[in-house]
Amino acid sequence: HTPIYAQQKNTVSPASVERLLSLKNQVSRFSEIDRKYTLEYAKTHHLPLEKTDKNGNYLALQRIASDGTPIYYTTLSEKVNNTTRTTYIQNADYSNSGLEGTNMHIGIWDAGAVRLNHSEFDNRIAQGDANPRNNLHATHVAGIILAKGKVAKAKGIAPKATGTSFDWYKDEIEVIEEASKGMILSNHSYGIDPKNVPDWYFGSYIYQAYDWDKIMYEAPHYLAVIAAGNSQGNGYNQSPVTGTSADNHDLLIGFSVAKNGLTVGATKNTQSNTDGRLTSAEIASYSSFGPTDDGR
Predict the structure, then answer these.
(1) Which pLDDT belongs to residue 81?
(2) Is the peptide bond between 291 and the residue preceding it cis, with omega within 30 degrees of 0?
C-alpha cells in the first residue's frame, strides 16, 4: 500500500518525519504491551471484546484504563442529516475551484473496512491494513466523503478524491505512518463509549487527546477530523465543569478533547441563502459539546 498524496507533496520535512517515526516507535511499544494486558484482563473479568448496543452501534474493547475502566470505541455518525450542504455545493458552478476533491487523498479510520468494490467508489479507495471484514458504518462514512453519485442522492462531498481505509485498532500508529508520507486529512467518526466511564473522563485531557495533539504538532500540515459524540440527553457526567448534568455541558471525551484536531458536532434546521452561506443552525438534540475541563 503506497498512497499518493499529490496535494501535499514535499510538505513533510525530514526532521518532522524523523520525529514522527520516533513517536511511532514509542506508541507501538506501548500499544503491544497494552493490547496484551487488555486481552488478559478481558478474559479474567469476562468482558466482551466486541458488542452492539441497543441503537445498533458497534463497540470494540480498546484498552483498560489505569483505574480499571474498560474503554470501548463506538461508531458515532448514525444520525447524519443534510447539514453537510453537499447538494448545494455539487449543484453550484465549482468546476474550476477544486472543491470536488481532485488530487486529494483522505485517510478513513473506522470500525472496520470500507467495502472497496462498492459501485460508488470506482476503485478510488484502497485498504490500508489487514482487516478483511467489511463494516457498514465505515462504508457509510466513506460514501458521505467520496461517493461518485451514480445514485444522485448518494453523491459525496468530494466525489473525485481518493481514500485509504483502516480499522481503528492501531489508529495512532497508522496515522503517524501516513502523516509521515504526507497525509494532511483523516476522518474519525468514532470515539470512546461514554456509558461506563467515570465523570472525570468528560472534558479531561487524557492520554488519547495528548497523543493525537503530539501527532498533529509533529505533522503541522495534517488535520484529524473527529466526531464530538452523541451523548446529549443521556444523563452522562453528573459533575460537569459548568452548569448541571441537565444542561448537557462537558460531554466531550477522548481525542475529541484534542487541541490541534477539528472536533465536529451535529446540527439541525440549517438554513442557507442563495449564495450557499449558512444563515442559521441549531445544535442537534443528541450532539455532544463542551466546554473542556481546561476551559476551551
Answers:
(1) 45
(2) yes
Closest CA to 191 of 245, 251, 249: 251
Amino acid at 6: A
Contact of 105 with 6, CB cutoff 8 Å = yes
Question: Do 101 and 232 form a contact (C-beta atoms < 8 A)?
Answer: no
Coil, strand, or helix at residue 280? Answer: strand
Within 10 angstroms of residue 125's Cβ, the number of other Cβ atoms is 26
**pTM (predicted TM-score):** 0.88
Q: Check pLDDT > 80 for residue 239.
A: yes
In the chain, the amino acid numbered 146 is L
Three cell numbers written together for 112 = 472496520
> Looking at this protein, which amino acid is placed at residue 89?
I
- DSSP alpha helices (H): ranges in 102-151? 136-146
* CB 144 within 8 Å of CB 80: yes
d(CA 157, CA 145): 5
Whether cis (ω within 30° of 0) applies to the bond prior to 220 is no
Question: Which pLDDT does position 160 carry in this prediction?
Answer: 92
pLDDT for res 203: 95
Q: Residue 203 is placed in which grid cell?
A: 472534558
Q: Position 104: which residue type?
A: M
Residues 176/215, Cβ–Cβ less than 8 Å: yes
pLDDT mean across residues, the chain: 87
Q: How far apart are CA 85 and CA 108, in angstroms?
A: 20
Residue 22 pLDDT > 60: yes
Which segments of the chain does DSSP mark as H helices, in order? 14-44, 86-91, 136-146, 171-181, 207-218
Three cell numbers written together for 277: 452561506
Q: What is the pLDDT of residue 276?
A: 67
Residue reference for cell 497508522: 174
The rounded Cα 294 to chain-centroid distance in angstroms is 22
